[in-house]
Each structure stands twice: as structure tokens, then as C-alpha cells.
Amino acid sequence: MKFLRYIVLCLILLIMIFPLLWMFRVSFLPSNSGLSLINLFSMTWTLNTYLDILTAGNMVRYFLNSMLVGVIVTAGNILFCFMAGYAFARYQFIGKNFWFYSVVFVLMIPAHIIIIPLYLLIFKLGMYDSYWALILPFLVNPIGIFLIRQYINTLPASMEEAARIDGAGEFKIVFKIVMPLCKPALAVLAIQVFLTNWNAFLLPFILTSSESVRTLPVGLALYQGHQAIDWPHLMAGSALAVVPVLAAFLFFQRHIVSGITSGAVKQ
Amino acid sequence: MIKRRFSGYLFASPWIITFGIFWVYPLFYSLYLAFTDYRLMHHTYKWVGFQNFERLLSDQSFLISLKNTFIFVFGTIPATTIIALILALLIEKNFKGRAIFRSGYFIPSITSMVVIALIFTNLYSRGGYLYLLSEMIGFSTPANGFLLSNKTALFSVMAMDVWMSVGYYMLLFLAGLKSIPKELYEAAEVAGAGFFRKLFSITLPLLKPVALYIIVINTIKSFQVFVEIFVMTKGKYGSSTAVYYIYETGLSRFEFGYASAAAYLLFIIIATFSILQFRLFRRKTT
């Protein structure tokens, strides 16, 4: 029985990871391999595809664009989600409930509804096809605000009160005392935002057109546009998009999982 | 709670500004556009009332893409939910190597959708591994590969989608399973309940809130299916979906008004389903 269970589990594991293994395998084939020549048992291995995409073409550019945008957007979310989360957890101000409902509201709005007006707006603002278009709309997100607010609600307010009595300024209290305490939640937030941004396709695709600001998923999706698909090169480019995700998963698995499940159980 | 009007607004301002510029304005702007005939090159455009909506309801390609979206939603969600639940039950208990299986099953769902769609384009095409496998087990395979046939294109994308997302929902089910008190099972065992009795009397009823949460978020997500269609079929071979249609009319034919109307119609459909599911959710959990 135990043995049978392992066999079933291993079989499912194979089904789940074969496509990714296949991607890596194809990426090491010579670039003239047509689909019919691509064989699981082929003995040909070459690094040429990787040398090609690292030295010529735009893949490296796309990769760096994705990194640049990902890092800035993540930094923005850490700062701004934290600030807003703190305001909603600790301050009392007129219209606070309204603004908090705005967070919940956006959380529930399906994003497809804004693609056309956002495209037109970005155009009007003169940001179309620039890094600004990939960064500005995404610097703060409702899930992040929600996460931080919930976390701060679980922290005792006594330390902040003591600091206030000592005459510490608001900024010092919030950034020097509370922010370090929120590290676990901020880590979850950072990884979630970075991965979402790293994999994002739809909005980066519609808000840019030139290759110089293109992100990696967009570059890969449009690479196909060429007539015959050059699978080894395309899969090597795909590997560039997957490796950072796998690395993040290896190091931050706990944070990724807790980010996903935190919403579900509290409902 | 301290009253600090200024600090409160100062700290919430990045959100308030983002909300105003990138959510409120676009939402109202496209609601307005939905009632106009605005398109590229028409710098003047006029109010046309409900004309766009009337046109949509008799537009065959829109109706087909809407039908495909429903097929996608109602085809993938039961499969995804059930498989995710089975996976969660399979690896619930602690055993050697559990972490490896959990991670392995989960990895596809954090990988870029574009990359997954590209890999499956390879696997599904003629001579690709899934194609060869289907031939081997005697499945009738379309001559040009699964994605270039009216019969199989949409279903192939759906199958990939289920494969990709089961790991994610498995994690949510695992979290739900963890929250079931162990004493319940112990008491049931004392009373002589077997595996199935425990499953149907304890596990499944107590997983209902998680299951409904999964169905609600998956419904909202699945109604908006786009990326995999864009990468794998470009909406051809009878596989266009509502958001693909909105993209095509709005951003490649530049009929902004008409596409906005389609977007709002889809929005109404999604909202209706979410509200219905939330109602069900409330009733079942209280």
C-alpha cells in the first residue's frame, strides 16, 4: 500500500515537472533542430544556444528590463503598502473607512476592465512605451496593503505609545520602530510582488511597443512571431525567465506558501 | 487609535493617488466610452446610447468568444478543484519526501504563463511529445497538431490550464486540512469510522469554506483567460475568449468604444457570478 502510494505520487511528480525539464533539454540542442529531430533520447548537448542569446539578439535586454522594473516595483510596494497599511491599522482620519473600502473594492475588480482606458490614459500622459508605463501604475497594490494592515493589527501598540511619550517624531516611530517589526510580512509581500511582476504579460504587453523597454515574458511571447519557430533558442530564453523563479522558490519557499495561504484560511 | 488626520492622509496618499488615477478614472472613462463610437483616427466621437451593447448581442464572433469563455470556466474549474483536492489528500500526512512532492506539484503554478504556454505549444504540435503520446494510446490526433484544429484547440489550452493551476489550489486545500481539529478524527476512529466515512462526514464538510473560496477566486480568474490564448492560438481555431476578443477589437482594431462595452458586459457577468457564489458561501458557512 505504502509502495503503491509512492508510485502514484512519483508518476504525478513526473507529469508535473516533465514540461519544465523538457524546456531545459531542448534549450541545449543545436539551433537547427526541427521539431521532428527533437528527441528525448538524443545525445547532442550544446551550449551554443545560450552563447547566442547572451551575445546577440535582445534576450539579455529583456531580462535586464524585467529585473529593473521588478526591483523598482517591489521597492515601491514595500514602502507604499507599508505606509498605507500602517495608516489603516493605526491612525484615525476622516474618510478612513471609505479609503479602506477602496482597497477591498480594487481587490475584487477584474483587471480586464481597465486595459483599454489604461492604455489610453498612459498614452495621454506621454508614458506609452517607456519604463514609466511599466512602473507607475504598479507601485502599490491592494493585496499588499491588506496583508500589512492585518500584520500590524497583531502587533501591540505599546512600543509606539512609549516612543510617542518620549517625544519621538511620527516618521521615526513608523520607519525606525514599526517597519523593522514588520519584516516577516514585508518579505512575503516583496516576494509575491516580484514574482507577479516578473511573470506579468498582459499590461506590459499593451503598454509598450519597442524592444528597448520590452520585458522578458513579452519578448518571449512575441519571439514566436518569426516564421519557423526556433525551439532551442526560444527554450533557452524561457529558461532565463524560469531560473530566477526557481531560485526564489528554493530560497523563499516558506514565504511564498504563506503568502498564498494567508488569505484562504482567514476567510 | 490616535487621531492624526495629516499623517493618516500622508501615509495613505500613495494608495489614494494610485486608486484615483489608475482605477477610478479608467473605470469611469471606459464606462463612458462604452456608450460612444470612439475609435482610432476619429478624434471626434459621439454618444450612441446602447448601440454598442445591441451590436455585441448580435456579433457572432463576440458571442462565440463568450461561449468559449463559459466552456473554459465550467470545464476547468470542476477538474481543477477536484484534482487539487485529491492531491492535497494524497500528501496531507507526513511521510518521507513529502516536501519534494509538494514543491514539485506546486512549481508549475509560479512559473510564467508565457513560458508554460510556449512549452505546451511545443508538446501539442505535430511530433511533440503529447501528440506522440496520444497517438501511442490510440487517441485520434488532428493532422496538424492539437492547437491547429477546431476540435481540440480550446480543450488543449484548458487541459494545460488545469495542469498548471492544480498545485496552487492544492496548497490552499492543505492549509484547510491543517485547520481541521485532530480530535474529530480521533473521536470518529473510536466510534469505528473507516476512511470513507471520515472523508465524507468530517473532511469534506469542513473543507467547504476553503473549497468555495477556491471556486470564487478561480471563477474571477478564469473568466479573464487571455495569455495562454494569445501565445498558443491567437484566438484561431474556435478558441477565442472574451478578453481575447476585447484585446483584439480594442487594441488591434482600435475600436475603443465597442471594446469597452464588451469589457463592461463581461464585468457584469463576472460580478453576477461572484455575488451568486458569495451568497452560496454565506449560507453554507453559517
Q: Any idea what the radius of gyration of chain A is?
A: 23 Å
Number of helices of chain A: 13
The CATH architecture category of chain A equals: Orthogonal Bundle
What is the distance, rounded to the nearest whole angstrom, between the alpha carbons of the first and last residues of chain A? Answer: 36 Å
CATH architecture of chain B: Orthogonal Bundle
Query: Beta-sheet strand percentage of chain B?
Result: under 5%
- CATH names the topology of chain A as MetI-like fold
The tally of beta strands of chain A, per DSSP, is 1
Annotation, overall tally of beta strands of chain B: 1
- Looking at the structure, what is the overall shape of chain B? globular
Average of per-residue pLDDT values of chain B: 90
**Low-confidence residue ranges of chain B:** none
End-to-end separation of chain B in angstroms reads 31 Å
The named CATH superfamily of chain A: MetI-like
Give the helices and strands of chain A as they follow along the chain. HHHEHHHHHHHHHH
Radius of gyration of chain B: 23 Å
Point out poorly predicted stretches of chain A: none
- Give the oligomeric state of the chains in this entry, treating copies of one chain as homo and distinct chains as hetero: heterodimer
The most extensive interface, with participating residues per chain, is: A-B, 88 and 90 residues
